[in-house]
Amino acid sequence: MGVEIERKFLLAGDGWRSLVQRSERMAQGYLVSAAALAGGHAKCSVRVRVSGDVAWLNIKSATLGVERHEFEYAIPLADAEHLLHELSDGVLEKVRHHVMFDGAHFEIDEFLGDNAGLVVAEVELPSVDAAYPRPDWLGAEVSEQTRYYNVNLIGRPYASWSVAEREGKEDTAC
Fold it and tell me: Where does the UniProt annotation place the signal sequence (predicted)?
């Protein structure tokens, strides 16, 4: 069974930029609506993602926290593009930067479109209580704040957040 243990953070500076090893543009959409997830009607999110000429389908449990069930399957690019444009609730675009720091792989997502200005770092861990480095550019942890979940950024993009929400000072339900 697939399990993802991931912590998500705001960024406290741009020091990570000089450490980027590679970047990739991504587009993703959800086949199970964010509204169904927020209303408690869905047990999982079902996402299609495209990066370059690679595409995959991802199923992730709709649970709060750093540990969730996750399954990912490669799919044909043409199928993914059809799913994104015909069956998803909207398309989220971002540039994912890959950064290694003190032995840890950080994925830093710089969002585009209505989510421009939002930049978050994620680090996957082998266990919930695993130690991880805390570079000075890593800010407040937002792993359990649902507004930062990609599935919620389609229905309630960063552009619509209050100043307090953008600063991570206010946690509102999505």
Answer: none
